[in-house]
Design goal:
- The protein is of the alpha/beta class.
- 52% of the residues lie in helices and 15% in strands.
- The chain has a five-stranded mixed beta sheet.
- It is globular, with a radius of gyration of 19 Å.
- Bound molecules: cobalt (II) ion.
- The site of cobalt (II) ion has 7 residues, from α5.
Length: 208
């Protein structure tokens, strides 16, 4: 890639935005009040704003390998805390994607060094849903299902946090589980049964 081209692209983009609205950037600089926290995969094919059709300022974004929300990950936990308590987003989205390399790697036994503990979180999802996954004969279908179940489990990890529980009680914040299908470009709502999960996990994870 020609890195200089990126700066040319940027100049063109600035001109394009200013030709539509001369105050575009001065307005952006005034602050942000996004309504959505989007947690997705770092995969270069899965953009956040572009696939949702939203503009700068509309989504607070966190991306990592395989859209994980590990319970002790300071980065993910800080993003959730800031977005929910300070920016007061009303929606938290976990967006996974089919053909996710992170999920694929967790289904294989190769030693990947520092990636091992990260991928272990996905292996834990596999273990939790081992029966359902092992019953799927077709390997591609099993791979896809693990992507979906991983999204569901990360939604649960989001719900475990005190900030999200409080925002749920106080203003009805919602947690959504989505999958982006790279092969069709479509965004699929997994319709994670938020209220049911909430009731189910609250017995164990409830925080005042
Ligand atoms: Co991925």
């Amino acid at each position: 890639m020609d890195i200089q081209q990126i700066f040319k692209n940027n100049q063109n983009w600035v001109q394009e935005k200013l030709s539509i609205d001369s105050n575009y950037f001065s307005n952006l600089s005034k602050g942000q009040s996004p309504d959505i926290l989007y947690i997705g995969c770092s995969d270069s094919r899965v953009t956040a704003e572009e696939l949702m059709g939203v503009s700068p300022g509309e989504a607070f974004v966190h991306r990592n390998i395989a859209n994980m929300v590990p319970n002790t990950d300071l980065s993910a936990m800080s993003v959730i805390e800031y977005a929910v308590l300070h920016l007061k987003v009303n929606h938290v989205v976990i967006c996974g994607h089919y053909y996710c390399g992170g999920v694929k790697a967790a289904m294989q036994s190769q030693d990947l060094g520092i990636l091992n503990p990260w991928l272990r979180n996905i292996r834990d999802v596999y273990r939790t849903h081992r029966k359902e996954l092992n019953d799927i004969q077709d390997e591609d279908q099993r791979y896809k299902r693990l992507v979906e179940l991983n999204v569901q489990e990360q939604c649960i990890n989001v719900i475990k946090t005190a900030a999200v529980q409080r925002a749920y009680r106080e203003r009805g914040l919602k947690v959504h589980g989505w999958v982006f299908d790279i092969n069709s470009g479509k965004l699929i709502d997994l319709k994670v049964e938020f209220n049911k999960i909430m009731e189910n996990v609250m017995e164990i994870y409830h925080l005042d």
